[in-house]
Amino acid sequence: MASEETTGLAKSAALKLSEMGERTKQLGTAMQDPNRQRRLILVIVCVALLLDNMLYMVIVPIIPDYLKIINNDTSSSTSKNSTSKHSGENNDLKIGILFASKAILQLLVNPLSGTFIDRVGYDIPLFIGLIVMFFSTCIFAFAQNYLTLFIARSLQGLGSAFADTSGIAMIADKYTEESERSRALGIALAFISFGSLVAPPFGGFLYQFVGTFMPFMVLAGISLIDGILLMSVMKPFTNRTRENMPVGTPIYKLMIDPYIAVVAGALTTCNIPLAFLEPTIANWMETKMGTTNFQMGLIWLPAFFPHVLGVYITVKLAASHPNYQWFYGALGMVIIGASSCTVPACRTFGQLIAPLCGICFGIALVDTALLPTLAFLVDVRHVSVYGSVYAIADISYCVAYALGPIVAGQIVHDLGFVSLNLGMGLANVLYAPALLLLRNVCQMKPSHSERNVLLDEGPKGLYDTIKMEERNAKKKGTGTSSRNHMPGDENGIDAYNQHQTSGFFSEEDSSGNEYN
Q: Residues in domain Major facilitator superfamily (MFS) profile (predicted)?
């Protein structure tokens, strides 16, 4: 009897193991499907962007109180009363520097990270960014002094320079159809907005009821899980023929492209109101309205819904009327300008919600219309490698958020809160006509890119080019016979390489044929 029971248990265990192996095999097969894989990639990138923006804003309700605790532990009790005002001003300066340090380092690293992404692809930089953010978050959780907080914040900027740029570039590469690309980037922008707006109440709640370390440990866990998921889906460190990757246009050449420069300027200008209001609006609300800390923490939360609405409307309009992307961006800048000018006129908490919602709605229009335009400009005027162009986009955001915590307070002190808002509103309204330069962009004729030469079934992204080359090499060997009969081009890869070295996608080559 005992032997029969043992045999039955062994058969049952073997059957379960066989079922698990079959399910694992099915899961692996499903993950190799291009459509499912790019959906998983979109999820991974969106989680990374959500995490980065939550890390940026989660310290808002934590750091002021935490710095007071640190100062109380280190200051002498004898001079406490005489130096209380000086200590408060010093804390404001420290908070401003702490907030700006992330954007400043990200601004400095982005030109290098963009070039690195163009050279090695998108998955390895994204993994590096997630790992750096994981360690920076852990340092935040156990920091005991201001220097450690500053190092952790700066490390977060380093991780963001890799994760944000490579994530957005990966979406642009995987979603080559313009309508799909706009929708995917719109989803990513919604996650960015949600992370920025939900982080302060999330951090404040856990800080109050659990402790300083808990918000950061939760976010560190999310970063680790996202990194593991990226490893399982993309396998970034497996052997890959990277020498066959197309050579991207250098970032300095992209910066002097007039179309890209106009888009970058618009991204900076439209984000200035948000970047400058975040560190100044709380004090203004307390002075003019007598609002509570709870109200100051919640003032930005309603703006999430018009932001998502703006993303949805722009994606729908871009799908039906793609030639008017420039107009959607210009309209968004006008809305931002008008809303920014009305902020100082508000006298109650409820009145203030409306212009802040208008600012976020306008930012959604501009970002959702212009981020896909950057990828389209690279497709038709340069090489379809997106690391450097989205590094430029990230630089545009960082300029606004690096200046905000440092410059905005000084402007309010010297000129007043009203002048700050009128200046930001006027800047957006005056910049909007510059987007007229983009009105012919959507009528540019895409060149026959290397992906159309190499793929029979249409473009699927940068890594599909590599896989196609590897597959052809296996079938036909590495001799010249594998290069002479590629579909759609007599010269195959040789012609593609000649075009690459001669500036196939350069502005000069396309300037004569870029319009229908």
A: 41-445
